[in-house]
Amino acid sequence: GGPRPLPGQEVSVKVLGALEDGGLVERDPRLIFVPGHGDVVQALELGVPTMQPGEVSFFLAAFPYAYGRPGSREPDVPPEAPLLFEVTLLEVRDGPDPQPLPPAVRLRLGSQRRERGNFHFARGDFAAALRSYRLSLRALDGPITAPPGPEEEEELREQRVKCLNNCAAAELKLGRAEEALAACEAALRISPDNGRALLRRGQLLAEQGRDAEAVLVLRRALELDPASKVIHTELSRLAKRQSPPSST
Q: What residues does the PPIase FKBP-type domain cover (predicted)?
């Protein structure tokens, strides 16, 4: 009974997932997600919005709608495995993003979506990873019910920087260097001494031929991590590129 989930609403479901031989690979008494955000397998993304609260449904998912061609380590799903899901729709409510939430809830949402992005990235689905990282940033930057304490403020800052660095990595995999550079620069506005963002920004500037800027950025990165072979190599390469040709 009750209306089906609308776009942007959050759902709570009870899920059991089994292989063809009956082996149980998933059991979650209360899985919470927003359909369309890429936080769960496609079988649930597509199937749950067709349900009503209290309804129990069975979804037989071919592998592209489950864990894909590579399968999964956690849960333990073999490659190209179809799955049977038993799903009970427990609750439908308004999505969390536009609502003022406590900082701790914002942190939980941000972490959950970033981890989902890492899952997609590891499987080579960089567009899905980027979508999850952007959703994570949206959660972290959403309205809060009260000012965060010092520890929460620091954790929010760290999670934003992680997400932006991950966005840069995904943009590079998608062949979008300008967008990757913008993500690095956004991370450095929050944390000017973030070594990962400095290194990647230096590399991207060098690729654009902006060698003088790249050298300054990479030298700063080297100050923070003097033992980095990658930074030494990048600076040596730029030095050779900037050296005038020897006369004969």
A: 8-93
Gap between the Cα atoms of 128 and 118, Å rounded: 10
Q: Tell me the C-alpha to C-alpha distance, in Å, between residue 226 and each of 185, 215, 233.
A: 22, 15, 12
The amino acid at 187? A
Going across the sheet that includes 56-61, the strands are: 24-33, 10-18, 83-93, 56-61
The reply to whether 141 and 162 lie within a common domain is yes
Phi, psi at 65, each rounded to 5°: -100, 0
Angle at the Cα of 132 from the Cα atoms of 67 and 20, rounded to 5 degrees: 10
Same domain, 86 and 52: yes
> What number is the average pLDDT over the span 191-219?
95
**242 or 46, higher pLDDT:** 46
Model pTM score: 0.80
- Structural domain count, the chain: 3
Does 77 share its domain with 143?
no
Burial label, 174 (beta-carbon count in 10 A; 0-12, 13-18, 19+): middle
Query: Does 3 reside within a domain?
Result: no
230 falls within a domain: yes
Query: What is the predicted pLDDT for the residue at 7?
Result: 87
Nearest to 44 by CA among 76, 84, 71: 84
**Beta-carbon neighbour count of residue 229 at 10 Å?**
8
Pair 190, 210: CB distance under 8 Å = no
Return the amino acid letter for 210: R
